[in-house]
Amino acid sequence: MPGVPDAVADGPWWWLFLFLICVVFVRAQGTYWLGRWLRRGLAGASDAEPAPEWPVSRRDRLAQRFSGAGWEKARAFVDRWGFVGIPISFLTVGFQTMVNAAAGFARMRWDLYTVAMIPGCLMWAALYTALGLGLADAWGRSPWLFLGVLTVLVGAAWAFTVVRRRSREPRATA
Question: 3-state SS of 71-103?
């Protein structure tokens, strides 16, 4: 396939699959431990403390990062689904990172987290291997086919986002 690295075009697909498993495993574990580190760094923070003066301390900046609607959804997701929710989160984009960090922040036991994370890593690697090889094959056949497939994927993601946002908007009553 022209334009595709030889390691992908000529090598067995499972090399890419194993590589992606390693990538996602290290990333998920790093995010989990970052969440635990943030929790330890924020252990002394309390709501009773006075408002910070300028410059804002590192602890206060971290507390701001661990607040907001996205983090609250991730914490609620981990609280609700617990062990089962970890592999499910690997089928999402962006939310997966927040769920992994929230699991660390909530101090989910590392051994349970890791056991739950492994099926998620396998699903993620399988999805990205299939998607990556499919796009590489499309590029090798025709750059126009590649652009068409990429356009369809981007359009589907955009449509999904629009439909999801519209379903969340409060509807005006007449």
Answer: HHHHHHHHHHHHHHHHHHHCCCCCHHHHHHHHH
